[in-house]
Amino acid sequence: MEQQVSPPARVQAALIAAGVDARIEEFPSSTRTAQEAAATVGTSVGQIVKSLLFLAGDSPVMALVSGVNRLDTQRLAALTGATVGKADADAVRDATGYAIGGVPPIGFPAPLPTFIDRDLMQYDVVWAAAGTPRHVFPITPKELVRITRGSVADLKLSG
Ligand code: 5CA
Predict the structure, then answer these.
(1) C-alpha span between 20 and 35 (Å, rounded)
(2) What residue ranges define each of the domains in the chain, with the CATH number in brackets?
(3) Inter-residue contact 48 to 37 (CB < 8 Å)
(4) What is 117-144 written as a DSSP string?
(5) What is the residue-wise DSSP string for 105-121?
(6) pTM, two decimal places
(7) Which of 30, 57, 61, 100 is most buried by its number of CB atoms within 10 A?
(8) Using CA positions, which residue lies closest to atom 17 of ligand 1?
(9) What is the mean pLDDT of the chain?
(10) How far is 25 from 8, CA to CA, in rounded Å?
(11) Would you say the CB of residue 33 lies under 6 angstroms from ligand 1?
(12) Rounded average pLDDT over 11-32
């Protein structure tokens, strides 16, 4: 299906609807991975928000994870009460409306239950994808929690 509105415009509209005064920035170089995004933006990898889609049973859930962390699927399983697996590229596009590398934390066809890596909360500002592998936006972690109605949790794989 053809999208009428560009991915960054959809994210911008969702931000505005949520009452966030965030500006999406377009970069000439890649923000596809957390490492690339950090280098491109000029911030730390920890301040990059990875938007990772998982299936808890058959239900999509969004995990927003600091770029330095790996998500512990057992922790997500405990939080959701279901068996958790990483969504494939098609499932990501179906549930979020965006392609991997540009998946934002909001702006989905339908809201997704969201869990937020507690480690993100330590920063003044974090950067999340805005629909493509060259668009990102800055936001305070507190605002990120508010607009996603996310649950802050210990999600990282440790040890
Ligand atoms: N724009 C950057 C940072 S803002 C970004 O989107 N990073 S990300 O981490 O949220 O998105 C990349 C993630 O997509 C990878 O960490 C990986 O978990 C996931 N991914 C990459 N390839 C695949 C694939 N083929 N199937 C499922 N997930 C994938």
Answers:
(1) 26
(2) 7-153 (3.90.960.10)
(3) yes
(4) EGGGGGSS-EEEE-SSTTEEEEE-HHHH
(5) SS--SS---EEEEGGGG
(6) 0.97
(7) 61
(8) 52
(9) 97
(10) 9
(11) yes
(12) 96
